[in-house]
Known about the structure:
heterotrimer, A: 264 residues, mainly alpha, MetI-like fold, globular, C: mainly alpha, 2 domains, 13 helices, 0% strand, disordered C terminus
Amino acid sequence: MRKLLIAIVWLYFGILLIGPLAYLCRQAMSDGVAAFWGEITRPEAVHGFKLTTEITVIVLVLNLIFGTVTALVLARQQFKGRTLLSGLIDLPFAVSPVIAGFMLVLLFGPETLLGMFFGALDIKVLFAMPAMVLATLFVTFPFVVRELTPVLQTLGKAGEESARTLGANEWQVFLKVTLPAVRWGLVYGATLTIARAIGEFGAVLVVSGNVLLLTQTATLHIYQSYVDFNYVGAYAVAMVLIVVSFAILTVLEVARVRATAGDS
Amino acid sequence: MKIEIRHLSKRFGTVEAVSDVSFAVEEGELLGLLGPSGSGKTTVLRIIAGLETPSTGDILIDSVRVNDLPAQRRNIGFVFQHYALFKHLTVFHNVAFGLKIKKWRRAEMAQRVSDLLRLMGLEALADRYPHQLSGGQRQRVAIARALAPKPSVLLLDEPFGAVDAKVRQELREWLIRLHDDLNVTSLFVTHDQEEAMEVSDRIIVFAKGHLEQIGSPADVYEEPATEFVARFIGSMNILEAKVTNGKAKVGSMEFPVSEFPDGQQVQVGFRPYYVKVSEDPARFRQQARLRHVYFLGVAYRLEIETDDGVILRSRMNKEEYRQCKFEVGQPVSYAITHFRILPQEGKPGAFLQPPQPPESGPFTP
Amino acid sequence: MKPDTLAGLALRSAAVGYVLCLVLLPLLVIGKQSLAGGLASFLEDIRQPQAAAAIVLTLEMALVTTMINAVFGTLSALALVRYEFPGRWFLNAVVDLPFAIPTLVAGLMIAAIYGTTSPFGAWLQQGGIAVLYNTPGIVLAMLFVTMPFTIRAVQPVLMELEREQEEAAYTLGAGRWATFWKVIVPGMLPGLLTGVFLTFVRALGEFGSVVIVAGNIPMKTQVAPVYVYGEIESYNPRGATSVSVLILLISFVALVIMERLTRPPGERLPIFVQRRLTVEPLSR
């Protein structure tokens, strides 16, 4: 019974996760290291990595700021509509990325109010960087809030209140008491944000227009290569993202252990 | 039902948690298993329940060997330390669980459960879930659940360990009454000697997997069979001494121990209330200085330092204390009215010095 | 951050304003758009043969994925929590990998090994099992991206379920089977339900991995998000809007049901559902 269960679990992981992962890594190297290197240093690939990095950094900063603010408000304030706000935060989890991108197209399309407004200012939102950032923000927004809120709630107010009695102002309370106590929860949420921002495809595909060397992120470049039957190219860039994924996974493990160790 | 344990041992890997323990629990008895944590008492309880299998030895319930009977078929009730209530079930269904397993008829089941809930004072809480109850209420639900299928034996593992002090006292008294009413053979595990004294008909003291002593609370308290029991139960002054000319000497104190050969190392033990203290230096022969007075509510505890630098604890009731006008730091006189030579590893019993009039002072300097 | 101070109020306004603009505004726009032509045109759009086929296929695939995930996710969680075996630590660490790997890359991985160019895929093809550009491929892709949900939702609940509860059932006369069904399963149900509903919702919306493995043959292997993408690309916002809104509605309803079902028993008021992905490290 026990052995059967363990065998089933290994088989499940093998078919779904480990097998495909190992095979892709092998295929990426099938034409040799030089070909692999050639693929990931092509101008299109390098541009893709650069664009993905830029979007990820912007999204991360915005999410850290607004995610922390929202988590603080949810965990520390009682007000009408708190439950509603909490529900709204979960919504992006339930929205297909393609639909998320499509909603932005509807919002900023040339015939809409917002579209005309930005058009008059000569700011290109759709099929350009701003829409790609917005799309990524939409799909990643829940991560920081959802990791941080429960950590803040279990942390309680005692530390913050004792700091206030010792004369600290709100800003000092936040910087010296709250933030250090929740830092691993924040790291966990931030890492999930990075992972999702790097990997986002559907939403960005819809809003970017997928213009070569202009609005093509790393994932869009992989898609392009795959559609153009350049399998080794697609696999090679995918390999780079997989390596990044493993780094992300390591940070997640560390953050999780630290965060739960800090809870007790 | 009578439970018998014969030469029970249990090893976990290389650790011997229980070694060669034998005892019997009489029909209708309330027996306390007392010992520090890690002394093997909980393991013994779990073996009786069938939750652990013994390495060697036998368990007999009503003279039938039950070693090979799984927990499900031993007809015992077990109350877990952390309640182990089923969180997804209401109080009513928690108590009914065992009856449902035994396929009781619906009407009889409802009757039995509501009887038990009334007995436990839980009728009003029947539809609550465990997380909506206080610690004391959860404990009572756990006991009701264990009693529901009419077990022949009730086993309780640290039943009051997880509730606060005041509730613990109430639950103790309640358990004694419950046991008087139902008269079901019961064993409970505790590390709290006071609790064991108060609740049990008899106590078994455990240490490091060994059975140290079995007897009534008074026996165990007044006549500890081993040094461990003497130290573990109640408070005791214990002094190391070497026998010379039939006397054990500690500084200026001398204890007559004619049975022991000269040169033997012995431990002299006496309870604090056998140390009499007076503010009058002439009252007793021995001299000391009062270091501390602790108010215990029902009595006072005094800490004195003898002229030889030995620190002794004494206990006084309020009337005695009020008659003497003590000030911390003042010189006092004292006498020891009873003492025992504590048994040593592998050596049999000890003796009790007959009480002597305190005025005379039993020992000459 | 006391709510009555000016700073507290500013903070709250910032949070609420941000969420309204980022999350609610786009949803309102698409909702309004879908009703622009009236309910009749909305129904007409989703009854289009291609659209209807895509929606039905998506629901079917998501349901199959959810069932497989529920069974194997629960078994995996049980094995990871209860048993000590070689590689346990490794498996427990890689469970999160699908959260970290881009969905597009997940699709590539599945396409590579299950495609006929790989020896394994060719072997399956010979056995009559076509995975790629077929429904099994879609299920595999959905399974991959949703794999952690059930495991990570059930694991902490199982860890919390004390061994003592099982032992209590034994002493009350319950056998192993009765204990499993009456104590362990109800005990882990809140976690399992959370995992199941999150899996379903995520599978409904999955795009990146499915677009690679499905082949996207209209009426056959085209799922709803891919259909929506196709409509956008062919400048038909009306069809895209209606199908999007239908999928959104199904997802929201699923989430609301989840919220109801996973409330602690006996609680009338909704309790803040803690959907933290963080799981206790395996220390036992």
